[in-house]
């Protein structure tokens, strides 16, 4: 590995480390003060958790009776739904099981039947009283009522010929006046059709915007809470197809003043998304927070504005996705929802195209051949190394040429000693006469950067790897701990990841194998190949096992390839003869070389004209 190769890999590593730190820093928590968060949460509590007037009286025998006047004053035209007994109904297919409640006429439990949580229990995408989806209705007493707090009248579950199932809930507001929520779970789909119907409500609800309150809580599903919170985000897409997002650890409040096509509450591997099918959400106000809890990843409270036109029969159809962050599944919906999967961001946003056009198709193809994801990653690694093989070969050829020229470079360095400009000019002349490209080892290294960053984004985001075991790694989507310390070691962690150790060891072996090709007179060039892998040890210790396994395989293949190429393919004697033949040819300078040489000469002249410091 010549000097320029080392510079290339150091630059590559610096960019990669910078990207990792930037990615983690951009996901750091920026909460507002606790009082503000508590007040926001209080506004979104179920009504029975807030203070409300007593709505019962006692008759002459002492028995409790309903105070109709009190209920009418508190609930307005919706007083019929003020009391009731909770009853549930279930819609399910092979993928999703949804338990609905007549309290609020909304989903109470969302279970993804194909998946389990990290502790092996059923995976509930929605569970607990914090989760609510209801209209906020204005009342005559200048108060508001959330439909999540009243009882609806349920309809019967209907099963349709196409395999879909449906149910509806109604909240009466008068004679032939009601609010209706209709739900249809499609066959073998994660999608639910959710339609809000307002019938003859034009004299009760003012024409204009209605607010739909959507609260959702992400509970711990994975092994690593830190990674889950880094990936707990709210994504949204405007009507003009512009996509944006924020991480719950970064934001506490976001106001979106433009029409929205969809809004998604994303976890590391799953999401709940509300999609406006006809009219768009006119605007949205989102509050979020990260409770100090060992089991709650984050909470979001969104107020979505629905454009109510005051018609006698008004419908607002919504499609709700309850499911995994699987690229192929989300892309098939054709609304850009696959963009919630982090395949490349920031200054390396371009690598998402490497993932989309190369890595994902090959990964899916290999997944169709075998279910062993350790073998799939091995085959993927070999495929990638074949793609970059021309660059790798050119890098080794450049290293071989620099090794042949090393004695002459050492002579020039000894001749000019501390005169770096003179040494640089003579070095350029030597390279030009020998027909050697000084960037031959640097550029191939930089061209591999998109692949390295693409892998850094792809593996931790791939739900296919979730809970897939290989060798000692129980779950390739998280770190492969072989020993837990029980305490935190600064800049390292609280565990030992074996694939990370193997990655570091093979990196050091590769550096040691190339030690004879580096500039041993320069301490940076001499020791950086050994320091850099140790720096990565702490960074990658908590990364997905699939990622460190890939880097380990890549190092092993590099060691094997380099030994084969330099032992059996590259002939140093032929390279030396070719260089000597190139020296005998008339040297032709490129315009760039001429300008560089002219600039160096000018700098030398300026230095000669400068007065030398007097000796004391």
TrEMBL record:
Pfam families, alphabetized: 60KD_IMP, YidC_periplas
Biased composition (Basic and acidic residues): 591-605
Region described as Disordered: spans on this chain: 581-616
Annotated localization: Cell inner membrane; Cell membrane
Gene Ontology biological-process annotations: protein insertion into membrane; protein transport
Domain Membrane insertase YidC N-terminal positions: 91-350
A GO MF label: membrane insertase activity
InterPro entries named in the record: Membr_insert_YidC, Membr_insert_YidC_N, YidC/ALB3/OXA1/COX18, YidC/Oxa/ALB_C, YidC_ALB_C, YidC_periplasmic_sf
GO CC annotations on file: plasma membrane
Keywords: Cell membrane, Chaperone, Membrane, Protein transport, Transmembrane, Transmembrane helix, Transport
Transmembrane intervals: 6-22, 340-360, 372-393, 435-459, 496-515, 527-544
CDD domains for the chain: 5TM_YidC_Alb3, EcYidC-like_peri
Domain Membrane insertase YidC/Oxa/ALB C-terminal stretches: 373-566
Keyword Chaperone in annotation: yes
Quaternary assembly: Interacts with the Sec translocase complex via SecD. Specifically interacts with transmembrane segments of nascent integral membrane proteins during membrane integration.
Family: Belongs to the OXA1/ALB3/YidC family. Type 1 subfamily.
Biological role stated in the UniProt entry: Required for the insertion and/or proper folding and/or complex formation of integral membrane proteins into the membrane. Involved in integration of membrane proteins that insert both dependently and independently of the Sec translocase complex, as well as at least some lipoproteins. Aids folding of multispanning membrane proteins.
Protein name: Membrane protein insertase YidC
């Amino acid at each position: 590995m010549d000097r320029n190769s080392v510079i290339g890999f150091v630059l590559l590593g610096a960019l990669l480390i910078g990207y990792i730190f930037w990615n983690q820093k951009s996901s750091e928590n920026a909460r507002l003060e606790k009082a503000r968060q508590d007040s926001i949460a209080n506004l979104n509590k179920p009504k029975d958790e807030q203070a409300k007037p007593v709505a019962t009286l006692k008759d002459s025998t002492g028995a409790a009776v309903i105070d109709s006047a009190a209920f009418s004053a508190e609930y307005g035209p919706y007083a019929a739904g003020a009391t009731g007994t909770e009853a549930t109904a279930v819609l399910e297919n092979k993928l999703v099981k949804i338990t609905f409640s007549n309290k609020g006429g909304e989903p109470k439990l969302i279970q993804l039947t194909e998946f389990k949580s990290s502790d092996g229990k059923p995976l509930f995408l929605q569970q607990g009283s914090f989760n609510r989806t209801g209209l906020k209705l204005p009342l005559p007493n200048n108060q508001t009522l959330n439909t999540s707090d009243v009882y609806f009248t349920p309809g019967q579950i209907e099963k349709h010929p196409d395999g879909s199932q449906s149910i509806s809930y109604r909240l009466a507001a008068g004679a032939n006046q009601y609010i209706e929520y209709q739900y249809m779970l499609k066959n073998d789909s994660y999608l639910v059709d959710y339609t809000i119907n307002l019938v003859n409500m034009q004299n009760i609800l003012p024409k204009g915007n209605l607010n739909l309150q959507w609260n959702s809580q992400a509970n711990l599903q994975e092994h690593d809470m830190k990674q889950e919170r880094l990936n707990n985000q709210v994504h949204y897409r405007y009507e003009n197809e512009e996509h944006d997002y924020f991480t719950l650890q970064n934001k506490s409040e976001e106001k979106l003043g433009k029409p929205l096509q969809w809004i998604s509450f994303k976890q590391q591997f799953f999401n709940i998304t509300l999609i406006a099918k006809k009219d768009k959400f006119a605007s949205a106000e989102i509050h979020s927070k990260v409770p100090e809890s060992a089991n709650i990843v984050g909470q979001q409270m969104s107020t979505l504005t629905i454009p109510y036109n005051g018609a006698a029969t008004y419908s607002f159809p919504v499609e709700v996705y309850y499911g995994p962050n699987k690229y192929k599944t989300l892309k098939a919906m054709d609304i850009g929802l696959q963009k919630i999967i982090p395949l490349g961001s920031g200054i390396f946003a371009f690598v998402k195209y490497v993932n989309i056009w190369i890595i994902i198709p090959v990964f899916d193809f290999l997944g169709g051949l075998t279910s062993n994801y350790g073998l799939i990653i091995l085959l993927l690694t070999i495929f990638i190394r074949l793609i970059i093989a021309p660059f790798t070969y050119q890098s080794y050829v450049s290293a071989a040429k620099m090794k042949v020229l090393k004695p002459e470079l050492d002579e020039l360095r000894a001749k000019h000693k501390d005169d770096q400009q003179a040494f640089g000019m003579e070095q350029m002349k030597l390279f030009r006469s020998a027909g050697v490209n000084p960037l031959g080892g640097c550029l191939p290294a930089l061209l591999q950067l998109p692949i390295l960053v693409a892998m850094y984004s792809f593996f931790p985001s791939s739900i296919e790897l979730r809970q897939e075991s290989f060798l000692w790694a129980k779950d390739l989507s998280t770190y492969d701990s072989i020993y837990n310390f029980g305490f935190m070691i600064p800049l390292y962690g609280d565990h030992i990841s074996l694939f990370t150790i193997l990655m570091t060891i093979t990196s050091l072996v590769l550096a040691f194998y190339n030690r004879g090709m580096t500039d041993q007179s320069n301490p940076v060039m001499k020791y950086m190949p050994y320091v850099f892998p140790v720096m990565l040890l702490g960074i990658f210790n908590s990364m997905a096992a699939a990622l460190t396994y890939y880097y380990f395989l890549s190092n092993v293949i590099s060691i094997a390839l380099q030994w084969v190429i330099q032992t059996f393919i590259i002939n140093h004697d032929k390279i030396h003869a070719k260089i000597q033949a190139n020296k005998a040819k008339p040297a032709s300078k490129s315009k760039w070389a001429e300008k560089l040489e002219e600039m160096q000469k000018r700098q030398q002249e300026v230095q000669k004209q400068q007065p030398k410091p007097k000796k004391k």
